[in-house]
């Protein structure tokens, strides 16, 4: 059987680190090839610290953000990271971007995909990325799109954890134990030098999701001693042979 | 390791057949011991055909309904079926019934539980059963309830498929392939002689859920050729080591 | 064919006036026999004006409220008004009350029923009345409940307009033109002497629902010139031969 | 009075058959002129069987799909079927398409319109079609759009049944008895030669919706013996003179 | 400390009057500078009365609508009113419009913003305006957008009251007492000569919202004697030092 | 003017500490008298650590839990703490308990009340407590309940933060800066010796809510440097004179 793969679609170049860095590192360790696509560098909207420096330019910010993301990807063991450079705040998600994304999806043939929450009033880039992911998944499934290519199956789309979950109408239905790879995620987080104010925030998140994992795996009556976890919301139903 | 177990809480004595007969038979084949608790016989509210017969009495209806349920349970390979005889339309779900149910839960120590949808404007017995199941699960987890007994862990509560799903605000997040045990479910269905008008209905449901299984496992690009399936809605998040 | 009938279940004795007085008067004019059941007089919770008077007693309040409700019922042409006197704030909706209500439902055999909104954080009597209405409807449909009686069919349950609709998660899906009977509703409203502060409020509601009727029947391009309307939310789907 | 009309907006050329073929045939028999607009042929995304044939081209697929749709329309007695040929997966719903659709709406002056569900994570074409339908309905109501033309009133927009209803957040509020025209719908379904795997699926749907019709029209206590039905979700409230 | 400011984004030129005229007048009296941006004149879709006159042209309608809006703004004491003239039914909310709006937001630096409801099936202009407002707010917060300009903080976005609130899924969480400025709002309303059919409607709304204010500030046990109020739904959580 | 007061209704004796200890301490510092009612000690369901000790009895657990709660209350500066001792898992919330609670509410005349989330599938005690709080609030507002007593106005009911917020359908709409009293809350938390596994969890929560406070008060463009916060969901709309 062929290699297992996964695909993460990240609106800005740091999102994949905070939101699913553990899942990436864990699945890489389990033999998956994980591809990360950063639609933008978050160069305008998520680089306040850089812009406060004198003489900053858009190109400098993008270069710096790219370097940080590449370092984080390396720390997580990402197989392939791609930068679509579509601009941010707002993202430009037109026909050409869709074609390009569909090509990646078709090539990767992911067992599962990841993207943002369905609603985000703070950051419309996030929610439009999810619409974009759904639309591209649909196109990749079309037998008449670039006939002859391998058509996409039905990979799950997991929505990774947004900031301020309750405001985003995001509800996790699966918790993943990332304790074995926490050190990798922590290292990746520390690559995001421009957003140091978020490091501890996401450490807290990981610890508290670990608590949720313990509670949902049995609590004080047999729960797993998970220390760090990540939560995800599934868009599609699962198909199983045992509950 | 000890035997795997499951617990089905059925408001009326036929519900477990239509709604999760396949899951029962399949997990029995996989080595689970499945316990079914029928809170009532559905003697008043779901036995119209019997009541249309001359000289019918409540006891006769209950006896007939019990016989049908026992036959269906046998067809499915149910390990244990219990009848709480709490009355129906409406169910009487008081303190004593809770104690009794908690005892069963503690004894079974189910890997997962099953019950009805959260909302059912046609049949309040159904939705009160789900509240009852949640409350009893909570009590069974309390270390101070009958101290010394084995405390319950954190079993999933699956809500099985109601009639008219959309009116019940029920949304399946997992489909189970019951093709290998369809003949058993079909045999069990045919034990419900008083509700013959529903046999074909639930055959259609099983076939169409099979279609949904095929679609969600890959569709025309690699989907499983599932012929019959059942859908379930999970109340609690899952805890996993791989997505 | 037999006479058409309808049944209104009103938590407190004034609710049927404000919320569906127009529907009652209109259907009476159309030949329906409308029965109104007031579960309580609203004697404790909705009679502030009376309680501010010196020497007031519970019995005096109840007598006064009953008189007002009877006058309003007469103004609307109500066929039958019954007072269950179950107490209010909170209502006592036990087994006996259910039996009594089921008897009324079976006797009336309503083409449609009316009750309160599903959610009301200001007034739990209202939302428990709706649960009660659904449960009694279910019991009345049970062939084994008082076998031999005529079993209930499947009447629609309309939720009439609550105060502060948006807080009650109430959404009307049908508007009824009550222009022809507005004078009757206005007369009935004026019977509620203890709640004069609400008269103009519900006049405004009726006018603005008239605007909604006009808009939804065609607006400036052919809408009906409705002056007064009432809105209702349906619990169950309709069954039709033409859309 | 002028002829009654209806308008169906179908994202891909087969949608109108599965989802509202019965409603079309029934209303044609009742004297309505029903117009169907197929925004695309579903040539890329819903023609897997054709694309698996050797030497297939986009034009051939479109021609084949058009032929099937025309045959189905004929079987249903459709008055007028139009193909906008906007491309599929994804649909291109730009300003020009809107103008064209508004022209059709204005010309047809439908008593009611039909379209897809509001949400569809499997198929964004479907949900964007509904947004498109709402937007075009709004434009058609504008007195300043092509002044002098007959302005649109306030037709209901019915959302017809999607695949996997629960995943689409679709809830039917009206069931239409299509028993009298089932043979026509079944004939139309069989015109869709490229999607034979769906024939039996939608036969099951029609039968089970018939069960829902029976249940909601009275069940065992007087329900109509409907054999086949279709369900619809209304976007707008109704305006009536009797409940 | 600098002057307090607020920004209202109105899809069509009359929306700000009906929906938040009281809030504007009140805050102006309290020392705020309120800026109103009308994205369009509502020239095509909300000027039926004008279009029914002979010889009407788009330019005449726009001029008339502008005059009415300016008069209303004057009556309310609006500090600045701007007309983006983007066309209506549908609005054209492209990249250029966003740039222009972001410039206004940055310049005004509002303490709070106002816009339409999130959902409006009757009028897609309304809901797209809210998406537009959220997107522009996000861009205005980006440090890399026009570096050097003052970056936007985190103003609340209030959704003002739509027509037919329940159909728009709008739920007010704050009521503002506009009794002190009602005369100004009433004067502004009367400036909208082309929509006289709505004057009384919004008077009723203001009175009934006054009732809601009274009820929520204590009712008969200490509630404020508010006569007129407006309701708003907040998108973002508040940050406070006392509850 | 009289003293400001607040009332916290805590299902189990530790809930008020984790969920609103900061709000209590802060409002006490601001001059409020805060009353805490613990409906139970959480003696059966939230005292696993104690029950694991040899020779434990229900009375010992209750005594220990009471001592912890009293110590925590002292640390927070609570004015009055009352223990209703209604039993837990499940709570017994009958007519007598309601009477008692209404008496407290009437006596305290709170400016605001606090309780649990509306939904909690893990812990039905929590959600029934919220129903109980709403019902008692309603009774306390009834002029006919114990006539002559001071009738309750319309205090806000804040739902404090549950465990696993997203599973509880809880969405905070207000964040309170508790930085000035964090040391008090931390001291109170450490009084809960039996639940040490939760100390760090709620420290993380407080820090991350501090991040949300910063973000919603302006973020990097002027946000308050809040270090610790608590979030609350309001049931009722606010009434204000300025937005």
Automatic annotation (TrEMBL), chains A, B, C, D, E, F:
Instruction: Please give the start and end residues of each transmembrane region.
Output: none
Highest taxon of source:
Bacteria
The protein's matches in InterPro entries, at most eight in alphabetical order, are given as:
GlcNAc_PI_deacetylase-related (IPR003737), LmbE-like_dom_sf (IPR024078)
> What GO molecular function annotation could you give as one example from this UniProt entry?
hydrolase activity, acting on carbon-nitrogen (but not peptide) bonds, in linear amides
Q: Which Pfam families match?
A: PIG-L (PF02585)
PANTHER family (UniProt xref)? BLR3841 PROTEIN, N-ACETYLGLUCOSAMINYL-PHOSPHATIDYLINOSITOL DE-N-ACETYLASE-RELATED
The protein's name in its UniProt record: GlcNAc-PI de-N-acetylase family
């Amino acid at each position: 059987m062929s290699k297992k793969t996964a695909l993460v679609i990240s609106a800005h170049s740091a999102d994949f680190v905070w939101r699913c860095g553990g899942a990436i590192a864990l699945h890489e360790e389990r033999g998956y090839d994980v591809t990360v696509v950063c639609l933008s560098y978050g160069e305008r909207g998520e680089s306040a610290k850089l812009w406060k420096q004198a003489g900053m330019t858009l190109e400098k910010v993008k270069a710096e953000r790219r370097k940080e993301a590449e370092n984080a990807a390396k720390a997580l063991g990402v197989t392939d990271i791609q930068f679509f450079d579509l601009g941010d705040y707002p993202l430009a998600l037109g026909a050409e971007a869709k074609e390009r994304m569909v090509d990646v999806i078709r090539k990767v043939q992911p067992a599962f995909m990841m993207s943002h929450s369905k609603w985000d009033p703070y950051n419309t880039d996030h929610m439009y990325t999810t619409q974009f992911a759904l639309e591209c998944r649909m196109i990749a499934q079309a037998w008449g799109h670039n006939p002859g290519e391998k058509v996409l199956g039905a990979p799950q789309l997991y929505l990774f954890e947004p900031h301020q979950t309750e405001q985003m109408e995001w509800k996790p239905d699966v918790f993943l134990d990332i304790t074995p790879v926490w050190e990798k995620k922590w290292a990746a987080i520390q690559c995001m030098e421009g957003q140091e104010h978020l490091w501890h925030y996401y450490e807290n998140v990981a610890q508290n999701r670990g608590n949720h994992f313990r509670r949902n795996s049995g609590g004080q009556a047999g729960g797993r001693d998970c220390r760090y976890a990540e939560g995800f919301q599934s868009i599609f139903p699962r198909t199983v042979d045992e509950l």
